[in-house]
Write a structure and sequence with these properties.
The complex is a heterodimer of chains A (383) and B (338). Chain A is α+β, with helices and mostly antiparallel strands. Chain A is built from 12 helices and 8 strands. In chain A, the strands form 2 sheets. In chain A, strands 1-4-5-8 form a 4-stranded mixed beta sheet. Chain A has a 4-stranded antiparallel beta sheet with strand order 2-3-7-6, with no helix packed on it. Chain A is globular, with a radius of gyration of 21 Å. The two termini of chain A are 18 Å apart. Chain B is of the alpha+beta class. Helix content of chain B is 54%, strand content 14%. Chain B is built from 11 helices and 11 strands. Chain B has helices spanning 4-17, 20-27, 33-41, 55-67, 74-86, 180-212, 224-252, 258-284, 295-305, 312-326, 328-336; strands at 96-99, 106-110, 113-117, 121-122, 129-134, 137-142, 146-149, 159-165, 170-173, 214-215, 218-219. In chain B, strand 10 and strand 11 form a beta hairpin. The radius of gyration of chain B is 20 Å and the shape is globular. At the A-B interface, helix 3, helix 8, helix 9, helix 10 and helix 12 of A face helix 6, helix 7, helix 8, helix 10 and helix 11 of B.
């Protein structure tokens, strides 16, 4: 028997390296102009103006057909673009969900009218999406959601509550998972995805402040919200299939191991050009893990580009990647020489504070560590 | 890029020529002549005869060898023959070994004789000759001229301390770009390849055991506590495999990333080896701790191999120094180099 997983080595074609240079030039100019300070957490680092600048360059919806405002480029080119933006700590948060998830969902399952309506605005960096999945009583057990969409004249009336909805208060639309029919024996039937206009009457968005004192989460209360039938994505009752079919894209990208990248860079800056042995050793271990994770992630990207669905491999990358990005601040705090914890303007301290405080969210978002390991175990043939 | 045909045929070759009995006998010092003959006949020993462009094939063969815990000096003979070919010497026939293979070892010329230190020469006693790098020259000392104090690693594989090398051993100048450091790097990569093969084999055994062993009325693999650990085992095995395969490509094609990739592969495989062995044993319970069960043929090798050709700490401090020298802005270009 050989391994139950496959990670074919992926080579980036020349056009990817050309794009990489272009992105590096763009980022250098942004940094020189002092337009933002680096933070590699894709979720919390946001700037609508940056998203519009990226959109103007054609770098949102890079893989989408040009008739929808996309770039018509390959998934590997998008991989390079996103890894460069994240490594540089660019504020990608506003367009991130629409670019990674909502746009591709509409391309795959949406109607022609939906694509024409939403994709060009997303690609310009003007229309932002969030995701309405979790509910007060439904987290990892997503199939248990209770938000209900009842058929009415011309569409649905939606009632229920979504929670942990990141940046609903800064988004225009939420891809919202609702129950439109009975659960059935597998519990996965009767779920549907709706494009919810967050300005609709009956939508209440209430802030939930996180432990870092920041407002990123929300509770979104839906009280008899009317959603027109043309805002149903794909098949009524096909929501579960639609949600789970994109998991390999969501779980294997560079955002799953780069969240603490600025802490690592700041550490190298502090360690100096010829550090003591134990500092060099810690750095070398982190670099070996980072290089390996990127190669794993790139393998999955290559398999996705080839039309495969490496869900097990994607789960392996996410769990290992999240563990790595959480371990970086834990090592840096012990290894970094000359800590200046009282200095509010110290780059290393700022990066450490941001990563320590946000690290708990990394192993929760996009599938908890425990759920991922269950998926991996099933992939190994253990259930 | 990857050679699945070679991998499959190597896996078959080792499966056909190995058994728990052979492994037990090898642990008692019995030389597996049939297995060695098959490996020789398959042409594996000259996989690097044309230089490091054969590294993908070499790593593939060694993953298969590691999967089966093959108790033969395959890494050592391949590297010895590579050194001979590269320096324009016809390699001696049969099993060979190399020195130095530990970061602190140095072999020096003291007057007319070779001295210094080579404390852990793999299969020294079984090798027809030891191919040595010392003072810018390649020495080929037949067994009759090399004295060893016998030793072994945790898996019982011969690891012998070179005591003396007789005078007038044949030597040639080293070819350009070949030195002890390069030998150590290629050895580290190929040892990592063996580990990357032994880890999926440990995973296979452990999955099978978790599905077969029933406690509390069901297979233990149904318990989430076991499943979570098994997922970690798979992650570590996967990371080691990816690191080794990508490093082998980088070396074979002399890519810019090779300088980082080889230490990264040895570090990552070495880290994974300890974790894989720990979880595999925990899931196997007491039976896995017995001599009778075959798990230890893999895990004792993993524990040994991670220390050989430089352990994680050695390579991590070397790699860390290189990264620090490049500075904070140099990290990402190094990580993304082709």
């Amino acid at each position: 028997m050989s391994a139950p997983f496959r990670f074919d080595p992926t080579d980036l074609p020349p056009e990817c390296e050309a794009l990489r240079s272009e992105v590096r030039g763009f980022i250098a100019a942004e940094l020189t102009a002092g337009l933002w300070s680096p933070n590699s957490d894709f979720g919390s680092h946001r700037s609508a103006a940056f998203s519009r600048r990226l959109g103007a360059r054609g770098w949102i919806g890079l893989t989408w057909p040009q008739r929808y405002g996309g770039g018509g480029r390959s998934a590997l080119e998008r991989y390079v673009l996103t890894e460069e933006l994240l490594a540089a700590g660019a504020p990608v948060g506003c367009h991130w969900i629409a670019d990674r998830q909502s746009g591709p969902l509409l391309l795959r399952f949406g109607s022609e009218a939906q694509r024409a309506e939403f994709l060009p605005g997303i690609a310009r960096g003007e229309v932002f999406f969030c995701i309405g999945m979790s509910e007060p009583d439904s987290g990892s057990d997503l199939a248990s959601i209770r938000t209900r969409a009842t058929p009415v004249e011309g569409g649905y009336e939606v009632t229920g509550a979504k929670v942990w909805t990141s940046y609903a208060h800064e988004s225009h639309y939420a891809i919202t998972l609702v129950r439109t029919g009975p659960a059935g024996s597998d519990r996965h039937s009767g779920l549907s995805q709706l494009i919810l206009d967050l300005k609709s009457p009956g939508v209440g968005v209430r802030p939930i402040v996180n432990l870092a004192g920041e407002h990123d989460f929300n509770e979104v209360v839906l009280d008899r919200v009317f959603v027109p039938s043309e805002r149903l994505v794909g098949q009524e009752g096909g929501g579960w299939h639609q949600v789970t079919s994109e998991l390999a894209f969501e779980r294997s990208g560079p955002e799953r191991f780069l969240s603490s990248h600025q802490a690592m860079c700041a550490f190298i800056g502090r360690a100096g050009r010829s550090p003591e042995r134990h500092i060099a050793e810690g750095l070398g271990r982190m670099a070996a893990q980072l290089w390996t994770l990127r190669r794993m992630s790139l393998s999955v990207a290559g398999m996705l580009q080839a039309g495969e669905t490496p869900n097990l491999e994607a789960a392996l990358v996410k769990d290992l990647g999240n563990a790595f990005e959480r371990s970086v601040p834990e090592q840096v705090r012990l290894l970094a020489p000359e800590r200046r914890r009282a200095a509010a303007d110290d780059g290393l301290e700022r990066a450490l504070a941001a990563t320590v405080l946000y690290a708990p969210s990394w192993t929760l978002r996009g599938g908890t560590r425990e759920i991922l390991r269950g998926i991996i175990a099933r992939g190994l043939g253990l259930r | 890029m990857r050679d699945t045909i070679l991998y499959d045929s190597a896996m078959r070759l080792f499966a056909d020529h190995m058994s728990p009995r052979l492994l037990a006998a090898a642990g008692e010092g019995v030389w597996p002549a049939d297995l060695w003959g098959a490996v020789e006949a398959a042409g594996y020993l000259d996989v690097l005869a044309d230089g490091s462009e054969g590294m993908v094939e070499a790593a593939t063969i060694l993953r298969a060898a590691g999967h089966h815990a093959a108790p033969i000096p395959l890494v050592e003979t391949i590297l010895a023959r590579w050194l001979c070919h590269a320096c324009g010497v016809v390699p001696p026939a049969g099993a060979l070994t190399i020195a130095p293979v530990e970061p602190d070892d140095r072999i020096l010329l003291v007057g007319e004789t070779l001295g210094g230190r080579a404390g852990f020469v793999p299969w020294g006693r079984d090798a027809e000759a030891v191919v040595l790098i010392a003072e810018g020259r390649l020495y080929i000392a037949p067994r009759s001229r090399a004295g060893y104090e016998l030793g072994a690693n945790l898996a019982g594989e011969p690891r012998d301390a070179l005591q003396a090398v007789g005078e007038d051993v044949a030597s040639v100048p080293l070819a350009d770009a070949i030195d002890a450091e390069l030998l150590l790097r290629l050895g580290a990569l190929l040892r990592a390849a063996q580990m990357a093969g032994a880890m999926p084999a440990s995973l296979d055994l452990t999955v099978q055991y978790a599905n077969d062993r029933v406690q509390f009325g069901r297979p233990i693999g149904k318990f989430q506590a076991i499943q979570q650990q098994m997922a970690l085992l798979a992650e570590e095995a996967a990371a080691a495999l990816v690191a080794v395969e990508n490093a082998a490509i980088a070396v074979a094609e002399a890519r810019p990333s090779a300088g980082l990739a080889v230490p990264a592969a040895k570090i990552r495989a070495g880290e994974a080896a300890g974790r894989v062995a720990e979880i595999a044993h925990q899931v196997h319970g007491a039976i896995g701790f017995t001599e009778e069960h075959s798990l230890h043929y893999l895990t004792r090798r993993l524990w040994s191999w991670r220390d050989e050709f430089g352990h994680e700490g050695y390579w991590a401090s070397a790699l860390g120094r290189e990264i620090a020298a490049a500075g904070a802005d140099g990290l990402w270009p190094l990580i993304t180099a082709s």
